[in-house]
Design goal:
alpha/beta; 314 residues; 47% helix
């Protein structure tokens, strides 16, 4: 199997799986409730742990590299620690039920916002939030739906964005919408610019390369070269909007939503665009590594993140 075929395989599988899981959880909210659905969903995740060799290997590799990079031997992977990462993923999915069902309020979330970014939610022009597959970004809906009533446009690469939107609407989301940005054509750029001008905010994950190809840049992450998407930084530069970071981490007392400013503006000339994008991507990767260390088992990327052409095929 070639590298491109391998990537296409896991990417398309993941996209289908995400949509099916969302359908399951949306159905579970209405029919079963969390208490009944919990053992079902944990059983599904257990199945993927037992039979998902590539996913297990990827989680093992992540935990090993996090332990080596941080020089914390206690984070080195074992079968139990890898299993716990899978179960943390199941718990995150179950927490989404509470978000979609309106059972998670701002009083259950600690918001860490030293720069007072929330004061800007009602500004004349929107901004961009860049998150990661770390913790539970669905908790952002608590900000969009329950808090500031700001419209949050989540930028995704999935071709199933409209179907996801229907499910979100059926689940009660009114201020959260998915926008497909697989191709940054003029129509999409105009639409995003208009949304920003209306005071809406954009949210995008910065740790997932597009499913069907796209621009990426290799930077250091946990001591090894890894591909990160250029999309967030290109968008911010083209749309001339500030970028902020958002991380939603679960602890013993509930969720912490961490907001921090990242770049007031991203500017480049044609001659130095690649260098500028690489610099901002590296800064983002450094912040992601920092927060991974705060929640070691909550980075939910179960695929070969550091895969490169010089690594052996398995």
């Amino acid at each position: 199997m070639s590298e491109s075929e391998h990537k296409q395989h896991w990417a398309e599988h993941q996209e289908r799986g995400s949509f099916l899981l969302m359908k399951l959880t949306a159905w579970g909210v209405k029919i079963l409730g969390r208490r009944v659905l919990s053992p079902v969903l944990h059983g599904i995740v257990l199945y993927f742990f037992l039979f998902g060799r590539s996913a297990r290997h990827s989680a093992w590799q992540y935990q090993q590299r996090l332990a080596d990079w941080s020089q914390r031997p206690g984070l080195r992977p074992t079968g139990w620690r890898v299993f716990r990462q899978f179960m943390a993923f199941a718990d995150a999915l179950l927490d989404k039920l509470d978000v979609w069902d309106g059972k998670l309020g701002l009083d259950q979330i600690e918001i860490v916002d030293d720069a007072l970014l929330r004061d800007q939610f009602r500004g004349e022009r929107g901004q961009m939030l860049v998150g990661a597959h770390l913790g539970n970004l669905e908790v952002c809906r608590a900000l969009a739906e329950l808090g500031e009533k700001v419209t949050m446009n989540v930028l995704v690469h999935t071709k199933h964005a409209e179907r996801f939107n229907r499910l979100l609407g059926e689940a009660g989301a009114t201020n959260l919408r998915l926008v497909q940005v697989s191709e940054l054509d003029p129509a999409i750029m105009l639409q995003l610019s208009q949304r920003l001008d209306r005071g809406e905010w954009l949210a995008i994950a910065g740790d997932r390369v597009p499913l069907h190809g796209g621009r990426n840049v290799r930077v250091d992450f946990l001591g090894h070269s890894a591909a990160f998407p250029q999309g967030p930084w290109l968008l911010a530069g083209l749309l001339k909007c500030p970028i902020n970071l958002i991380f939603c981490l679960k602890g013993a007392g509930g969720y912490r939503v961490i907001l921090e400013p990242f770049a007031a503006a991203i500017e480049w000339r044609r001659s130095d665009r690649q260098q500028v994008i690489a610099q901002w991507t590296q800064r983002y990767a450094d912040r992601l590594a920092y927060y991974c260390l705060q929640a070691p088992q909550q980075w939910f990327n179960f695929y070969p993140f550091w895969k490169s052409d010089d690594e052996p095929r398995t």
